[in-house]
Amino acid sequence: xxxxxxxxxxxxxxxxxxxxxxxxxxxxxxxxxxxxxxxxxxxxxxxxxxxxxxxxxxxxxxxxxxxxxxxxxxxxxxxxxxxxxxxxxxxxxxxxxxxxxxxxxxxxxxxx
Length: 112
Prior knowledge:
Belongs to the bacterial ribosomal protein bL17 family. The chain is an alpha+beta fold. The protein has helices at residues 10-27, 34-53, 56-65, 69-82; strands at 29-33, 91-98, 105-111. It has a single domain, classed as CATH 3.90.1030.10. It is globular, with a radius of gyration of 14 Å.
């Protein structure tokens, strides 16, 4: 399986993803680099699919990924029910342009 390492070791990458996912579900829209947005997009879709299932095991799997129980509750109670009739494609990546300072390509990641 190919994935982006983002210049970090596995534990730092996992912590980064957990933090970004928590913020993403909290605000439902975040601005980050394109590479991070593309990686987070797939992870967010998996968590929404788990939340759509809604059973206890799914809730515990989601809580293992997110850093805040309130955000997990929001995911199960408000975000997942919106996508009951949708088979996937819950997120959208909108490219912005280079970041001032280091010219890193930026993007907005949002829920559809």
